[in-house]
Amino acid sequence: MDTPLREPTFLILTALAGAPLHGYGLIREVAALSDGRVTLRPGTLYGALDRLVDAGLVDVDREEVVDGRLRRYYCLSPVGDATLAAETERLRRNVEAATARLRERAHAARPATPRAAGGLA
C-alpha cells in the first residue's frame, strides 16, 4: 500500500471485515463505527464501492431481489483484508508514537515536588 487510506475508505473496509453488507447496511455500519462523524450518502458510497471493486479490495458477495429491487452485498477481498491489516498497523504505530510523545510532554510539564528536609516524611 503506497498511500494511507482515507477515513471513509478505511471505515468501509472495516465494516466489511465483519460480514458482507449491502449499501444501506454499510451506510449504517460506517456511521456506527465512526460514532456518527462519517455519514456516507448513497452516491458517495456506491462510487467508493465501484473504485474499491476495481482496485480489488472489495468483491461482490451476492445479489438478491428484495421488494422488486436488486440488493448487492459486498465483502472484503483477500487483498482488501491485507490492505486493512497493513493500514491498521500503520495507524497503531502512529498512535503509539503520539501517545509516547504526549506522555513525555506531560511528564516534563509537571513541577518537581520539593522534599521535606531531614528525616522521613
Automatic annotation (TrEMBL):
Residues 12-85 form the Transcription regulator PadR N-terminal domain. The keyword Endoplasmic reticulum does not apply. InterPro entries: Metal_resp_DNA-bind_regulator, Tscrpt_reg_PadR_N, WH-like_DNA-bd_sf, WH_DNA-bd_sf. It holds the Pfam family PadR. Gene3D superfamilies: Winged helix-like DNA-binding domain superfamily/Winged helix DNA-binding domain. GO terms for molecular function: DNA binding. Keywords: DNA-binding. It comes from the Bacteria. The keyword DNA-binding applies. PANTHER family: PADR-FAMILY TRANSCRIPTIONAL REGULATOR. This is DNA-binding transcriptional regulator, PadR family. It comes from Micromonospora avicenniae.
